[in-house]
Amino acid sequence: MFRRIAFFALAAGFSASSSLALAQGMPRSPAPEDARVYFISPADGETLTSPVRVRFGLSGMGVAPAGTRAQHTGHHHLLIDLDESEMPSFDMPLPATEQVVHFGGGQTETEIELAPGEYRLQLLLGDHNHVPHDPPVLSDVIVIRVTD
């Protein structure tokens, strides 16, 4: 369906005690109530050609690479074509898939190759362990159309 030009995932090893924590869910980092993640571009309803440049915006918090534990910071994850029933758990590290793209280096933009069609895009901030904050810092869904 699509492939990414840039894909950054951070591999993490967990000890036996961490495995137990994962089975029960992980603690979530607090986020300020006014924190907001959003798309700078593309705009909702926009028709584009591939590759699509996606720029991420964040207010009320800072961006830091995965693994960096600092209050009120996180890194971006781009959700592609996920509906509510497919949303990942908010008390576990986000999976790295073609539909949940990690930007653990602290990136604030990317280019993605998308085949012609319609796509639902959403942003979700993750903490140093790729776990969504509490409350989750989640953008509105935008819908874009990609043409030949």
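That was protein one. Protein two is written in the same sequence-then-structure order:
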Amino acid sequence: MNSAPRPNGKMVGAQAVSLRVSGDKSAFYNCKIIGFQDTLCDDRGNHFFKDCHIRGTVDFIFGSVTSLYLNSKIFVEGDPEGDLEMAIIIAQVRESSSEDKSYSFVHGRITGTSKDVFLGRAWKSSPRVVYSYTEMDEIVHPGGWSSNRQPERAETVYYGDYKCMGKGATPPFLVLDYVEGTKWLLPPPTVPK
């Protein structure tokens, strides 16, 4: 846990890391990692997190690594003063699609006291983040992801969510809305018996 005060979105250098992992083949079980901005610097190597609780406000899981988060709870802390511009869980650092780096969240839960939380943002040009079988509370922003005010990055990011559930989950590739089917598909004809 980092006891640094909550950043107000205006102070320079207000980020405060609670845990930095730079060793290869590091595993964490049943850990609580708590802070505000930049809580977990998941930096270099291959890492595994299981049954962990990670709490923060902005970019609170970040780094240039390949990590699997299994059955972990992500708690997004709300901003009582309303000073922070936005709440973002992930700022994954991958500079090109040739780099074998990514974050995978499986069978976890996203909850908290914040609103309109982005699952991740394109902090660098080619982030790769996937959420699978994750329960997402209504705190998740309907768009899910942020281009970090750089729309050209939409061509180079790899963001996905697969079979996620809850009020904040949107199953974009698994429903008729993917092809705007509710606007043009007709029900199948009934054949008389």
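Helices lie at 181-184. Keep this in mind for the problem set.
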